[in-house]
Amino acid sequence: MTNPQNKIDVDGEELSVEELVGRYQTLRDRDNKARLRREQEVSLRPYQAELIRMQQYLEDNEKRMLIVFEGRDAAGKGGTIRRVTRYMNEKHYRIVALGKPTEEQRTQWYFQKYVSQFPRGGEVVLFDRSWYNRAMVEKVFGFCTEDQYETFMQGVTGFEKDLVRNDTTLLKLYFSVTKEEQAARFDRRKTDPLRQWKLSEVDLQAQDRWDEFTHVKYEMLRRTNTIECPWTVIRSNDKHHARLNAIKAILNAVPYPRGDTSLDYAPDPKYLFSGSRELELMEAQRIDSGHFKA
């Protein structure tokens, strides 16, 4: 036991040297993490300024832009959307996160509720999950029939090609997180009162259905990654690098005049892949181990 005489009074609380050192280390770790987060946020600002310039170009030329954010639960889509739009002109962008279809929507053409949210000239619309719900969540949880799923998979590429042919810039981003990181993020949501609202019944089953989601991810990429409308895959275990590379992908999708030519606009190949490259990696994993890992 520690001799009480060896304890130090800290604001009326007696602490041993070991306890004091441990507390200091905890505070220092927290301070370092907070400092790192601040530095990361500051490093995004030049790119966020470019997003404003890009937005101005779209407005001046009455161009339309659609950005689709897809990926597993807790993959970092929402946090990235907030960084993308943080300084943008609110009059010329919208974030769309549609809930369960209404009874009326269930009787409509599947794409109808999404089309009603599409951008006008000079506007950017960011879909926090999109029509690809049918290829992922609805397929895994049986919220659609096999016929509905197959009809979607056969029709979606033509639907997207028509968008592009009609002068809409379409960027499809898929955020890829590992099973271990997803579990860690779910655990934080369970204990953090500021994050608990993010947890849903579907989220709670995501880990148990990991392999099913991996299979439908592969099928989605295989069948909907086209030359006209390719997928961009972002490794999102590291949130900061995922956000930075997503912003770079968005900037590179529009031929606006760069403001700061000193910036590095090239995506980091450690964090950003083409859909074709992701398919190659997944197929190699399956050949090597007999099953998908991503």
Give an overview of the whole structure.
This protein has 294 residues and is an alpha/beta fold. Helices cover 51% and strands 14% of the residues. Helix 1 packs parallel to helix 10. The longest helix has 44 residues. The protein is globular and about 75 Å long.
Brief digest:
This protein has 294 residues and is of the alpha/beta class.
Main sheet: which strands, in order across? 4-5-3-6-7-8
Distance between the termini: 50 Å
The top-level CATH class is: Alpha Beta
Element-by-element helix/strand order: EEHEHEHHEHHEHHHEHEH
Query: What fraction of the residues are assigned to beta strands by DSSP?
Result: 5-15%
Arithmetic mean pLDDT: 91
Number of helices: 11
Write the layout of secondary structure elements.
Elements: E1 8-10, E2 13-15, H1 17-60, E3 64-71, H2 77-85, E4 93-96, H3 103-106, H4 112-115, E5 124-128, H5 137-141, H6 146-165, E6 168-176, H7 179-191, H8 201-206, H9 210-224, E7 231-235, H10 239-252, E8 272-274, H11 275-289
Parallel strand pairs: 3-5, 3-6, 4-5, 6-7
Antiparallel strand pairs: 1-2, 7-8
